C-alpha cells in the first residue's frame, strides 16, 4: 500500500476448487466444511487485516445450498466475516457474470442484502448500470466506515468522501460516454 497500490484479497472464500469458469456458469464446490476451513479459507485468514476483498460466485452446498457465496448471508456472515475474520470492505465480483441468475437489479439487490458493501457491474451496459444503481442502498453506518477506510488507504490521508463532489466528478467523466451517438 505504501507504493500507491491498494491490494484486493480475492476471491473469498476461495476459488481453488472451482472446475468451471464462473464467468460462464456457477461452480459448485463439493467439499466437507472442515476441509474448506483447513485448506481453502486458511490463506485468507492471514490477509484478513487488509482493507478490501472480493467475493467469489461459487456455490458451497455444505454451507448454503441455495445461494452463491456472493449472495449468501450465511457465507458472508459465518465464513467471510466469521471464520476468516475479514472486517474490511467487501465487494462482489462482477455481477454480470453468468454464474449469477436474474436481472441485474435482482442480482445487485440480493448481493447487497447478503452483506456485500459494494457491488461491481463491469460489462458497460448503461441500462444495467442504472438498474444496479437504483437498488443500491444508501451508504451509512458500518458499511460506510469500511468503504471510508479503503478510501483513506488509497489516498494516504484521512479525507472524508464528499458524495456531492464524487457524484459531480462521476457525472463529468460519464457525460462524454452518455452523449456518444449510437
UniProtKB/TrEMBL annotation:
Keywords for the protein's UniProt record, in alphabetical order: Glycosidase, Hydrolase
GO biological process entries: carbohydrate metabolic process; peptidoglycan turnover
Domain named Glycoside hydrolase family 3 N-terminal: residues: 4-136
InterPro entries: GH, Glyco_hydro_3_AS, Glyco_hydro_3_N, Glyco_hydro_3_N_sf, NagZ_Beta-hexosaminidase
Catalytic activity: Hydrolysis of terminal non-reducing N-acetyl-D-hexosamine residues in N-acetyl-beta-D-hexosaminides
Enzyme Commission code: 3.2.1.52
Claim: Chloroplast is one of the keywords in the record: no
Single GO MF annotation: beta-N-acetylhexosaminidase activity
Family named by the database record: Belongs to the glycosyl hydrolase 3 family.
Name this protein carries in UniProt: beta-N-acetylhexosaminidase
Native organism: Roseibium aquae
Amino acid at each position: 500500500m505504501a507504493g500507491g497500490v491498494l491490494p484486493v484479497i480475492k476471491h473469498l472464500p476461495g476459488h481453488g476448487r472451482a472446475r468451471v469458469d464462473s464467468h460462464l456458469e456457477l461452480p459448485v464446490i463439493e467439499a466437507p466444511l472442515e476441509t474448506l476451513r483447513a485448506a481453502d479459507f486458511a490463506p485468507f485468514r492471514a490477509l484478513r487485516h487488509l482493507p478490501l476483498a472480493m467475493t467469489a460466485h461459487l456455490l458451497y452446498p455444505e454451507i448454503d445450498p441455495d445461494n452463491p457465496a456472493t449472495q449468501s448471508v450465511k457465507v458472508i456472515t459465518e465464513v467471510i466475516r466469521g471464520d476468516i475474520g475479514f472486517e474490511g470492505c467487501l465487494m462482489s465480483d462482477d455481477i454480470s457474470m453468468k454464474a449469477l441468475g436474474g436481472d441485474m437489479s435482482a442480482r445487485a439487490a440480493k448481493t447487497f442484502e447478503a452483506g456485500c458493501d459494494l457491488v461491481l457491474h463491469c460489462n458497460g451496459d448503461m441500462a444495467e448500470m442504472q438498474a444496479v444503481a437504483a437498488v443500491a442502498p444508501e451508504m451509512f453506518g458500518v458499511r460506510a466506515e469500511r468503504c471510508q477506510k479503503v478510501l483513506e488507504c488509497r489516498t494516504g490521508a484521512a479525507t472524508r468522501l464528499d458524495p456531492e463532489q464524487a457524484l459531480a466528478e462521476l457525472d463529468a467523466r460519464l457525460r462524454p460516454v452518455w452523449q456518444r451517438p449510437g
